[in-house]
Amino acid sequence: MKAVVFASLIGSAAAFAPAPTARTSTSLAVEKSKALPFLPNPVNCEGYVGNVGFDPLGVSNYFPVDYLREAELKHGRMCQLAWLGYVAVDLGMRVPGYPEAMSSATSATVHGPAVEYGALGNIFIWIAIAEMTSWIGVSQMLQGSGRAPGDFGLGTKFIEGKSAAEVESMKLKEITHCRLAMLAFSGVVTQSVLYDKGFPYF
């Protein structure tokens, strides 16, 4: 009986034994990322416009890349608008009809007055409606409808009559601007708070 128990323990331990060296040498031959040459290339990102192999956390191994690209485009588009809105307010642009506390505030200091006035509650409702509406398209995309990430049927006139290479170039420009806008908005908010000055925040 002791021999049977001992044999089963040895068998269980063998399951956790190191892999043979042959497998290790195979892993060394894996293609490396262009952006991070010390990491493997994220193969799930292949074929997407703007892919440079940047996925250090391996997120594309756990989530559909269509969903990740949808999120990247959404946040990038929002940051393009957000940067413009943030700077426009600090350059003096105001929506008429708001109380003095909001009209005299800067982008960095308007949160408190906006909460008191109730403006942020309205913004929350409109964002919730937009999110629920957009999820219909995202859900269909994830179920194989063929919808491209970020495609809501807007701006199609800009790619009408263009070749596949030209459409690819337009998509690359958009994703590049989206990525830049995410960095730009983070930078403009940080700099405006650190220096406590108006545009250009230094």
Automatic annotation (TrEMBL):
Give the matching InterPro entries: Chloro_AB-bd_pln, Chloroa_b-bind
Protein name (database record): Uncharacterized protein
Q: Name one GO biological process term.
A: photosynthesis
The chain's coiled-coil residues are none
Subcellular location(s): the record lists:
Plastid, Chloroplast
Keyword set includes Signal:
yes
Annotated residues that bind chlorophyll b are located at 77
**Region forming the signal peptide:** 1-15
